[in-house]
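FW: tagging you since you asked about this chain on Friday. Here's the raw sequence from the shared folder, copied in full. Didn't touch anything.
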Amino acid sequence: MKYRLLFVLALAALPALPAFAQKPNRSISVSGAAEIKVAPDEILLNVGVESRHPRLEEAKRQNDESIASALAFLKRNGVPDKDVQTDFITIEPEYERDDSSRSALERSRVVPLLYTVRKSIGIRLTRVGDFDTLLSGLLGNGVQYIHGIEFRTSQLRKHRDAARALAIRAAKEKADALTSELGVRRGEAQTISESYSGGWWRSGAGWGGGGGQLMQNVVQNAGGTSGDDGATLAVGQISVNASVDVTFAIE
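HL: got it, structure written out here
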C-alpha cells in the first residue's frame, strides 16, 4: 500500500507533457447582397366613403348608396368579388364643442348635431394597365378618399429565391478574392444567415426594401415595363432584396 501511494505521488510530480499541436481554426466572414428589379403585376388599393347627416339613418343610407355604386362599378369592369373587401366601418357622433355650462346629466341627454359614417374598401387589381380607368371610375361612383396604393409582385417567393442565390454567389466571389490575395483557399461554409426586404412599393412610403450599406451588391433586371402609353400612372419597377452573411473556413 505504501509503495503504491509513492508511485502515484511520483507521477503527479512529473512535468506536464507537451500537448499535440493543433491547427488553428481559421475562417473568413463576408457579406453578399443582391437586388432584383421587377415590374409589379398587382395593385392593392384602399378607398373610402364618408357621409354626414343629422340623422344616423340618413347618414348610413347615403354611405350605403355610395358603397353600392362603387361596388357595382368594379363588377361592371371585371374586378372579381374575391378581390374586393369592405375593410372597416366607423360611426362617429358630433356634439357641440362648448357644453361646459351644462351638468353631466344634461350633457348625457344632448342629441348629436350630426353623425359621420365612414367605410373603407380594399381592392386587389391584377390588371395593372387598367389602374387609371378604375381609379377615375371609382372617384366618379361614390368614392371620396384614396387611403393607400400599394404595388406588389405576385411572384415574390420566386424573386426572393433568385435574389438569395445571387447574394450567395456574391459572398463566395468576395471570399475567393480575399483568400486569393492572402495566398490561401476558401474552404466550406461554416455558418450562414440571410435576410430579405422589398417586393412592394407603397404610395407615400418610398421604395420598399431599401437598404443600408450592403456589401458586394448585385442588381438584376427581371424585365417588365412601366405603364401603357398615355397613362398618367408610371408603374415603374419594384425591388426585391436579399442579403447573406457567410463564414467560410480557410484551408
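FW: Residues 5-14, 204-219, 224-231 have pLDDT under 50 and may be disordered.
HL: agreed, and The first strand starts at residue 27 and ends at 38.
FW: great, closing this out.
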